[in-house]
Design a protein that fits this description.
Keywords: ATP-binding, Ligase, Nucleotide-binding. It comes from Candidatus Adlerbacteria bacterium RIFCSPLOWO2_01_FULL_51_16. One of its GO terms (molecular function) is ATP binding. The chain folds into two domains: 269 residues, Mur-like, catalytic domain (UDP-N-acetylmuramoyl-L-alanine:D-glutamate ligase, 3-Layer(aba) Sandwich), CATH 3.40.1190; 163 residues, Mur ligase, C-terminal domain (Protein-Tyrosine Phosphatase, Chain A), CATH 3.90.190.20. Helices cover 39% and strands 21% of the residues. It contains 16 helices and 15 strands. Strands 2-3-1-4-5-6-7-8-9 form a nine-stranded mixed sheet, sandwiched between helices. It is globular. It starts with a helix and ends with a helix.
């Protein structure tokens, strides 16, 4: 009870201060929501908008009723430190009272764990450009909503925050998202890989490192041809793979188009984008292996896309490097907050893994349903291992890895699947730089 009251007090004070700061400094606001790719999209948009402007973005995934005001105030998360929270409050007052060099633009990530989260934020946040990424049929956090459609409706509430003369940016390859264009009278721009979008990507291809095998055969990123306003140019992303890893670049280019930026400036800005940790990041593993680190979080749509990428990388490596590829190993943790949909969705991912991976390793009791799905789809029992703990799974995986193996690691936040990556990465001393959840507060959990 006390902790709940204390949190509500913190939220109330932070929100009041954040609203006062917005009234004082009048920054332009770009707000990003969706069920897949919010953080990467926010980071890519920041890279583009920061060309020639003073910009601040949400740190990491500061997308909640606490994180958004903290970003507006430019304050850190104090976690469980009461003194640090008091200091944040004082800093907020000083920002309001005394004139400061405040950012011209804010790029904010807006999330929803429960009904009303985005509606409450939209009630006070004046948005110039609202961006909505993919909203799959089975989104993450659906456990606390009446239905997947209710999640979509909550995300769409961000549109109500759009100012007069604002721009709504939508992922046009998702028909449900595209349909949200009818929810506003303001300008609408779309992005994606399909026909009919305003900013389109095509010819997505893997990029490979030069050199002798096996290093020469591994992918190092992806490239795509970007089409904006009748002009095209190539852009690339280094350090991550998957078509869905390119979508944030398309969203950022669309925001650039909304701001009237030319394609050369947009492309130059995207050169400064680095995919965030835990989102399809490529990390060299021990024994000349490759790790696809997608450990930030998981949902059925994201897990399916990651498995498709695992299937893409291994054949690509064989063709480009001229060597026999190793095994495609999927290490998948529980997908949380699916509620009554959990059993069916875990089984579907198991079926998907049987088609895209040579070996399946699961972490968590919910993932036993993945195992059943994989078995039902023909994956041999000998190719499946089950664990309850991510650290143990990583330690045992270390012993069975062979040269040339490609390992996808994915799971919901609470499964702490980054511990698997830390066990098998070639340079574990770089974990604080490359992996998610490396600050001391997370390490203690």
């Amino acid at each position: 009870m006390f902790l709940r009251i204390a949190k509500q007090l913190v939220v109330s004070v932070l929100t009041l201060e954040a609203r006062a700061v917005l009234r004082r400094y009048h920054p332009h606001i770009i707000a990003v929501t969706g069920s897949v790719g919010k953080t990467a999209t926010k980071d890519a948009i920041y890279a583009v908008v920061a060309r020639g402007a003073h910009v601040r973005k949400s740190e990491k995934s500061f997308n909640s009723e606490v994180g958004i005001p903290l970003t507006i105030l430019g304050a850190p998360n104090a976690w469980s430190n009461p003194l640090r929270w008091v200091m944040n409050f004082v800093d907020g007052v000083l920002l309001i009272v005394f004139n400061s060099r405040y950012p011209e633009w804010l790029v904010l990530e807006v999330g929803a764990d429960r009904p009303g989260d985005i509606k409450n934020i939209a009630a006070w946040l004046p948005v110039d450009i609202a961006v909505i990424t993919r909203l799959p049929e089975m989104p993450v956090h659906v456990e606390f909503f009446d239905s997947p459609q209710a999640v979509t409706e909550e995300k769409a509430a961000l549109i109500t925050a759009l100012k007069r003369g604002g721009v709504l940016v939508l992922f046009g390859d998702d028909e449900g998202v595209k349909a949200l264009s009818s929810a506003t009278r303001e300008r609408v721009l779309t992005f994606g890989f399909g026909e009919g979008v305003d900013v389109r990507g095509e010819h997505a291809t893997l990029l490979f490192e030069e050199g002798s095998p096996p290093a020469g055969g591994w992918p190092i990123g992806m490239s795509v041809q970007l089409h904006v306003g009748g002009v095209s140019a190539p852009v690339s992303i280094i350090g991550a793979v998957g078509a869905h890893a390119l979508v944030p670049l398309l969203a950022a280019a669309t925001v650039g188009e909304a701001r009237g930026m030319d394609i050369s400036t947009i492309v130059e800005g995207l050169k400064g984008y680095e995919p965030p940790p835990g989102r399809m990041r490529l990390i060299r593993g021990i024994k000349e292996t490759l790790v696809i680190d997608d450990t930030y979080n998981s949902s059925p749509a994201a897990a399916g896309a990651a498995l498709d990428t695992l299937a893409l990388v291994a054949p690509g490596r064989a063709a480009q490097g001229g060597i026999t590829p190793g095994r495609r190993i999927a290490v998948l943790g529980d997908m949380l907050e699916l509620g009554r949909h959990s059993t069916a969705e875990h089984r579907k991912i198991g079926e998907h893994a049987a088609k895209t991976a040579d070996m399946l390793i699961t972490v968590g009791f919910r993932s036993r349903e993945m195992v059943q799905g994989a078995l039902d789809s023909g994956m041999p029992d000998a190719n499946i291992l089950q664990y309850e703990d991510a650290t143990r799974a990583g330690a045992e995986l270390e012993n069975i890895l062979r040269e040339g193996d490609c390992v996808l690691v994915k799971g919901s936040q609470s499964m702490r699947m980054e511990r698997v990556v830390e066990e098998i990465m070639l340079e574990p001393e770089r974990a604080p730089e490359l992996l998610v959840r490396q600050d001391e507060e997370w390490k203690r959990r």
